[in-house]
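Example record

One chain of 363 residues, shown exactly as stored in the release files.
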Amino acid sequence: MKKTAFFSALRGFSSFLLFFLMVGFVVSCCMLLFLNVLSDEMGLIYNSDNIAEAAKITFLNVLIITVLFKTADFIRRKIMVDKPVKIITEATEKIMNGDFSVRIKPMHGSGMEGFNKVGEAINSMAEELSSVETLRTDFIANVSHEMKTPLAVMQNYGTLLQTPNLSEEKRNEYAKAITDASRRLADMMTNILKLNRLENQQIYPNLTTFDLGEQLCESLLQYESTWERKNIEIETDIAEGVSVSADAELLSLVWNNLFSNAFKFTENGGRVSLTLKADESYATVKISDTGCGMSAEVGAHIFEKFYQGDTSHATQGNGLGLALVKRVVDIMQGEIGVESAVGVGTTFTVRIRRAENELEEAR
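Predicted structure tokens for this chain:
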């Protein structure tokens, strides 16, 4: 601390000495020029006494000017530099310590424009960090909550499996419950990893041109056993020859999640519809069901992580599917929307950009 104060004092003295020499040089040059002109014009002759007296006065003037200017510069720095720097430094230290609520107020006065720009940037950073911290906290809380249920199921049924003289039927039932819970837990971890990679731009779309109708049919056929078991009517209206330029693997996540939701929320004897239309720029896919539907309030949150509007079906999912869908569609620079009514059903509409070569041929 003493060493720092010593070097600070040394820098201050060096700055004062440099400024003193500069002022002395300028004043001396001006004085000599003035005396030479005065001597030439008026024929004055200076002796040693006059020069010594002038030197003393000049030195005193230089010293006074230096002190005045350095004092003014010191006050200016304290008000216009050190004070704003102190405010900004204190704010950044609070942010480093985790206080993201700190904000730097605009500083008024001449020359504060640059500091205000720095303050605005720090305020924006603090606001963004606060949002990220809230999302991180909510994400951890939601993950912990979602993991508790399957882990509790596995623990409870694992304990029941240890019951002596357990019948084969009960043993199979408990084993199936453990398998289903572990599968749900594994699916949740898989979706979390996928969503994390998508949100952190670690997955880059591998754009290829393919027939969208064929991909939709393949995705739909994966649920054939489900619609047969629940006696669900299937309606399709798929335009032929509709190609898109997209990442086929990522886009299949969209259809699989939307079909999964449609069949999950559609009761026995209901209906699921698939429509594919195309215009010059986009292919439009609509997946509809006659399920329980949802309110406008629920519809406004369905693309959020871990959000589940219908808690009666919560054991069948983890609230990450539609968050994945939204992120994939955004990466594809597409659009997704939802229309729903309670007791009527839900329709998801996805618009994907068509293949460039197909558009060229159409023109």
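Notes: The radius of gyration is 38 Å.
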